[in-house]
Amino acid sequence: MTAAKLQHIPQLVRQQYAAAIEAGDAFFFESDVRIVRGQNVQRPVPWQIRIVPALLKKPKAPVSAEEEARPKQNQVDVFAPPYVPNLLVKELDDFTVLLNKYCVLPRHYLLVTRDFVSQEKPPSPNMLALVYSLIKSHTPSSDGAELLGFFNCGPNSGASQPHCHFQLVELMPSENATKAVPIEHMLDTQSAPDEDKEEILGLAVPWRHFVARLEPPSDPDKLENYFGKRFSHLLEAMFSLAMEKNDENKGRPNFNVLLTRHFMHLIPRRNETFDMKEAGWEEYGPGGHPPKYTGTLSVNALGT
């Protein structure tokens, strides 16, 4: 995929997003963001907790005759044709760029395979290279903003659609933060002179989190091979540790992939949700008074 084919995508995303919101083909939900920083750690991460109560009330199916006549997504596979015109950004050779219909962050868009590929399969080297090219071609809407790509592989990873898709959103640095992607406060953008650039890094967090530093070749024809190798290094690290820890094999692996300008992250997943009761949180124990409709947290992969 040549850079020329991608250079207009940021502008097309902005144009289509504005048109889709105005026409009612896409919906944006306001959210309240709270910043929580780790305590007693060398590099505290400014975690962003985003509260979106409006998602409990997604728009219902249209009822008026005018709304019934509007273009609709494919009811069997929402990432397959026919596309809602305002949600279609661009059709590429093997992929299609679509807007996400329900947005918590503005201009949330997707790279989906033209033909059906299961979301339970890892992203292909071609897809990784293309997403990275989209990230590199992104025009930030404000200083410090950065495009993040994320891929939820498997039902325990937060994946909600079976058709293969990579998601892209623009993140803004929180107040007094230096990086837009919170978890990357734990990483140095520049490698040390004596650092093994092929090494897979493990972050000091309570879950398994593998990171590959990215220094891709300038030749776009070599990107696919480069990302295939770097991703295989991440998978090898994940499987090696699983064997070392004698993890039970329960079918296909589930994981999240985060892709930024400087790093590729791989986070293995065992469960799609976090149960606050099982974790022993006081509010959910005897005598506690937990808020209504809470107790189970669905964990997605925005890296925030």
From TrEMBL:
Nucleotidyltransferase keyword on record: yes
Domain Ap4A phosphorylase 1/2 N-terminal: 8-188
Molecular function GO labels: ATP binding; ATP:ADP adenylyltransferase activity
Gene3D superfamilies registered for this protein in UniProt: 3.30.428.70
EC number: 2.7.7.53
UniProt keyword annotation of Zinc present: no
Enzyme class per UniProt: transferase
Biological process according to GO: nucleotide metabolic process
Signal peptide as annotated in the record: none
Residue span, ATP adenylyltransferase C-terminal domain: 204-303
Coiled-coil blocks: none
Pfam families assigned to the protein according to its UniProt record, in alphabetical order: Ap4A_phos_N, ATP_transf
UniProt KW keywords: Nucleotidyltransferase, Transferase
Identification of the protein by name: ATP adenylyltransferase
Source species of the chain: Malassezia arunalokei
Protein's gene: APA2
